[in-house]
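Reminder to self: tokens first, then the designed residues, so the page reads top to bottom the way the pipeline ran.
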């Protein structure tokens, strides 16, 4: 398949119902399920982490091949964390004895200078994922399918009882949120209204992983259950 077509339109609430798979990366692998996906800031490379062990694989989307350009096996699993501005790292952690509610997990902001705890927020359930909007708003996905938006206060709670949310990601303009849904598919929502704009699931019983936006907002990458990664987009710019 040819390299990623950058003439494709940015995904918007208006054209989201026309989303379709435009490219498939990698080959089907029985023992691999790519759970975590991440674009580099330029959007030309895509990284995938295996959910079952510590393998990473990456693709150069600017080339004409859909074969991975590199892979590596790590000795330990990376801890999920995000930079929140230049001075802090945000991650989810277990409860601690000195916490106000000792049995609840917490969201923590740590100093990038010395790793000290700068701020913490007690969560109602364990966090299953973290996402960051392009303007720095943090979204923590909780075990019960809730999502906590944190920019100094809780702004909104999301609940979609038709899907068990396992990850969320913002479009670059913050208008849309994509979520992997119950390990069987992904769904696309309007952020302000919560309206479901598009959803897709496979017919087989293979568990799927992350769904994430490319930095330019033209594509959604989705970790499919057969070990491949699908790139989804809408039609070319009119």
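Designed residues (238 positions):
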């Amino acid at each position: 398949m040819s390299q990623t077509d950058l003439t494709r339109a940015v995904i918007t609430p208006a054209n989201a119902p026309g989303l379709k798979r435009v490219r498939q990366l990698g080959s089907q692998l029985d023992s691999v399920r790519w759970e975590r996906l991440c674009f580099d800031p330029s959007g030309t490379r895509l990284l995938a982490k295996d959910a079952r062990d510590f393998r990473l694989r990456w693709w150069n989307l600017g080339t004409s091949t859909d074969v991975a350009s590199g892979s590596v096996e790590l000795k330990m699993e990376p801890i999920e964390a995000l930079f929140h501005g230049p001075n802090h790292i945000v991650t989810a952690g277990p409860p601690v004895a000195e916490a106000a509610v000792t049995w609840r997990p917490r969201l923590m902001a740590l100093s990038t200078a010395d790793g000290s705890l700068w701020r913490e927020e007690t969560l109602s359930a364990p966090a299953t994922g973290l996402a960051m909007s392009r303007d720095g708003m943090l979204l923590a996905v909780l075990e019960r399918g809730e999502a906590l938006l944190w920019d100094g206060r809780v702004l909104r709670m999301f609940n979609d009882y038709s899907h068990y949310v396992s990850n969320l990601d913002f479009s670059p303009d913050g208008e849309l949120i994509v979520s992997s849904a119950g390990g069987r598919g992904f769904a696309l929502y309007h952020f302000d209204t919560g309206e479901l704009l598009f959803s897709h699931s496979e017919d087989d019983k293979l568990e799927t992983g992350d769904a994430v936006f490319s930095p330019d907002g033209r594509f959604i990458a989705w970790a499919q259950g057969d070990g491949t990664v699908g790139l989804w987009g809408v039609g070319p710019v009119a």
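The first strand starts at residue 20 and ends at 25.
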